[in-house]
Design brief:
By secondary structure, the protein is α+β, with helices and mostly antiparallel strands. It has three helices and four strands. One of its GO terms (cellular component) is cytoplasm.
Length: 88
């Protein structure tokens, strides 16, 4: 299991389209993906879970990835967030 703190760089945080992009990317991997914010931890492969965090621009979230392809998943997902959750 690996963890990494990342800052949400896009304008709206993890809402609607950016959340959908993240979930779509997370579902490409077999590893479990979680996002943690202020003590709340949600499934990073669930659009409802990700949007329920209410994460805004500039907030620091923690990505937690556990599984066979965890390193590759962490690299891609953290880069996606750091790059502002632009279209894949």
């Amino acid at each position: 299991m690996i963890r990494k703190n990342v800052i949400l760089n896009n304008e709206v945080g993890l809402h609607a389209r950016p959340a959908a992009l993240f979930v779509q990317a997370a579902n490409k991997f077999s590893s479990n993906v979680y996002i943690e914010l202020e003590g709340r931890k949600v499934n990073g492969k669930s659009i409802i879970g990700v949007m329920s965090l209410g994460a805004f621009h500039g907030e620091e979230i923690t990505l937690i990835v556990n599984g066979e392809d965890e390193e590759e998943a962490m690299e891609e997902l953290s880069k996606l967030i750091e790059d502002g959750l632009k279209d894949l």
